[in-house]
Amino acid sequence: MKSFYTLFIFAFLSAALSPLLAQTGAQLDSIDEMMDSIYRLSDVTVTSARLNKEIIPPQRLEGKELERLNSLSVADAIRFFSGVQIKDYGGVGGIKTVNIRSMGSEQMGVYYNGIQLGNAQNGQVDLGKFSLENIDEIALYNGQKSNIFQSAREFGSAGSIYLNSRRPKFAEGRDLHLRASMKAGSFYLINPSVLMEYKFNDELSLSLNAEMVSSDGRYKFRYRRVTPSGELAYDTTAVRENGDVNAVRVEAGLQHYYSNTGFWKFHAYYYNSERGVPGAIVNNVWRRGERLWDRNSFVQATFQDEFFDRWSLRVNAKYAFDYTRYVNNDDKLIHVDNIYKQREAYLSVANKYSIFNWWDVSLSYDFQWNGLEEYMDVSRTSHWLAAATAMNLYDHVKLQASVLGTFINEEARERDEVPDKYKVTPGFFASYKPWREIGLTFNAFYKQAYRYPTFNDLYYTDMGNAYLRPELSVQHDVGVEYRIDRSAGLFRLFEIKADYYYNRVKDKIIAYPKGQQFRWTMLNLGLVKINGVDVSSQLSLAFGRDWMLTGKLQYTYQTAIDVTDPSDTYYGDQIPYIPWHSGSAIAMLTWRNYALNYSFIYVGERYNQQENIMYNYTQPWYTHDLSLSGAWRVRGVTLKATAEINNLLSQDYDVILNYPMPKRNYRFSFVVEY
Amino acid sequence: MLMRVLRYIAFAVAAVLLACACREDEIVVPTEYEPLPIPVRSEEDFAPGEPIGMYLLNEGNMGSNKASIDYVDFVNGYYVRSIYTERNSTVVKELGDVGNDIQVYGGRLYAVINCSHKVEVMDARTCRRIGQVDIPNCRYIRFSRDKAYVSSYVGPVSIDPDAQLGAVFEVDTASLSVTREVTVGYQPDELEVLGEYIYVANSGGYRLPNYDYTVSVVERYGMKQVEKIPVGLNLHRIRKDKYGRLWVTSRGDYERVSSKLHLLERKSSVSKDMVVTDTLDIQCSEFVIQGDSMYFYSVAWNSQTETNDVAYGIIDIRTKELLTRSFITDGTQEEIKVPYGIAVNPYNGDIYVTDAKNYVSSGVLHCYGRDGVKKWSVRTGDIPAHMAFVYR
Q1: A 450-489 residues with CB below 8 A of B?
Q2: Are B363 and B340 in contact (CB under 8 A)?
Q3: Residue B36's domain spans which residues?
Q4: Which of A282, A513, A553 lies at the smallest CB-CB distance from B97?
Q5: What is the count of structural domains for chain B?
Q6: How far apart, in whole angstroms, are the C-alpha atoms of residue A345 and residue A116?
Q7: pLDDT tens-place string over residues A589-609
Q8: Over the stretch A368-413, which tens digit does the pLDDT of each residue have?
Q9: Model pTM?
Q10: Residue B87: which CATH number?
Q11: How far is A225 from chain B (nearest CA, A)?
Q12: What distance in Å separates residue A83's CA from the closest CA in chain B?
């Protein structure tokens, strides 16, 4: 035990681990098995989507690991992935968007249970709105999911995030699973949720989940500045105002796994919120009066089965309606009261045919209709057609090639004729595993992806440009992965992955000034070259009596250079808000039913505008989070309690200039499960 | 094998940790002194009507809080970038968000900071802060008889929240407090004091496509709007000349109706009423009158070429004739992407033109001689726009 502290502190400086390596760890069951035995869970379902031939595995956070991270929303959890930059405007209700490998948030596809979440208006999905409460797994794929049995749209994003909601789990001999949780913490956060899962029979089950989040969003922040000679210039602490949020989420799922290969699922989602938009903190303005109401609802259904041993079919359908109302009540500004209504209808058919057991081909077609009403009247019909093939040569070489055709037709009721747009984009993925016994894998991919101009880009009042071309990103990636997985001994799991990538974003859609008075237009002007290295590693150790330590480390180095026009003063400069260095570290220590989790996030220096000059310099930020949790079982009921401290050292930082982030804050949660 | 791998990782981690910087104390926005290619002179050598310096207000992009004041020091031959933060380092969150106008009056420097809803008042010689006047959504400032008049986009709250009229605030320069307020047209921009009246150019810029087209006439004694003169679509600038006339620019609707230059004169030599006597079909974004010459430029978006059409010129204000299509004679106007401000040194005739470039990066201040030949250029803050001279 003496070396335990050393181990904890220097988990990532493995030099310090050397003396430990000589020790022989006690033969123990892994904590996960233990936890499972406590919960006594067993899966009813047989099919597992993940057994498919994924050529390049994603970065993944799931189950208990996800639970233990100090995260409230999906955005908080995604910070732990490498190659990801997050824009966080602060607080529970603040907008949180991500982009991967500097390609822009609009290039990211976010999939909820396999179907893309859309925002045709501005192309961005606010991940702060997605609670982790009902999410069982988050997976991040660079390029696309390298599994050919997918909908055509899934071949289209430059990067993809998959959010998979909980699949019903029942204790043996029970038909009902109940779970109630309550989270509370700083900023008057109150976050109760209930989950009910009911099993009609071994095939058919129902789940219902409801959650409420409420917070006044008031938090202290501090601006402290010194003069160049080191004297204190000013030091002021204020309270963030108008950052309150009230949201309700209700989800229902019905799933029928009727055979080893076939199932259908139905899912309904409803989210309703009201929030304040806290806005930028600038001189003489400490409070703003913008309010935002969001109502997002969708229903989606999936059917999948296999026929004649060789042909697999999946059908997805979705209908979504989003309502947004934006009001500016600030009496110092021009009054604004806008309503946006977006509708989306989506249908997808994916087919996979196994020619041999080592060679698959697939063909999928997607149709989508998007309509925007009230503020702008515009609609878009999109068709995607994708063909792909995948091969597995003796488990050594896996190959995949795909080609996607996209056809977009638009109708803008208030503007001029809009040209139709179509594009064909290829993708190639390969992995090579030289030895079957040694977990060493090499992989590479090449992919083109288009980002279609959003409704805002095209038609936003006085700013849109109906003649925009799609933005093209070309990705090249080579990577290597080494993995050891053992069920006994001191070392349980060791994994290291490294990727080098080179991306080019061409015809980047940027806002360009038309002249005086901040009148802008959208143009295909930008050209950005991105070079980067992502490294991630994971190590699990089992030692002592029932102790288990898991460490995860992620690091990204990247340059994202604007090479649009040599006459620009920012030619060759790093694009805004992309740090050269960023990374995260997680250490999880578990003993029986108790777990201590420590996480660290680092985002290095960066610039808040295009020019890399001192006036635009933004300091690095890094936060330390800590959580402690315990689980107990009392007469068939499982209780779980967690205490979290976030931003342990109370760092005063801005992720986005003039949007201060909270200082140290706390969160407590209590879960009862039957 | 594993040990070796671990050791490599340790090295890599250590290297990365060394490469990653830690946070340091945040420093107030730094000030830079850049020498200019102009002779260093003693302040005593400056004539009374010769400016010893020029302040330049950089607007900064909305939400960036990057409004800043630069200073061209004609005495010591320096360009001082961000002088405000050096002289006023204790002001929380610096100068503010979106500077919109800067003027010198009575030994004081007044900067109108639009999105910080204030007029910052400083000593004109030292740039040290004296105080501020809170005025919501303030736009431009003019002075007369120890009173400042500030136009604002927001007047009193109206019944229809989407049809809010603008206002002009009267500020007592001694007490730095608002004394009176008058409601004018929609989104008033520049204003001018001429005799007993204040003339306000109403834009209606937020009411597209129903732009305002009037100049509000405010009687100064009673602070009452007495008349609205129809002039042209979407008004912006309004300046008097030495003949007691008013030159007004209209922005047009950026599509069918182009920007124009309008002239207002008294109806007759005995009448107080101003009427539009001429409209020149010359696009004009900003101008400055020096003697009988009006130096102007225009920036207009050309949707065919997807570029800005930029033009420069000089107009003889007596004959209203266009004298030349360029006051920059050495061809260096090609360096300017988006001209965004103009000033003429009243003593030696030097012309100053600012370039706002793409509005989200630092701009450039260019200085041209009276002959139109470039003398020097210097990097400014973001969106350099408004200039004011200081004298001995």
Answers
A1: 461-462, 482, 484
A2: yes
A3: 2-293+382-390
A4: A282
A5: 1
A6: 12
A7: 999 889 999 999 999 999 999
A8: 999 988 877 888 899 999 999 998 888 889 999 999 999 988 877 6
A9: 0.89
A10: 2.130.10.10
A11: 5
A12: 15
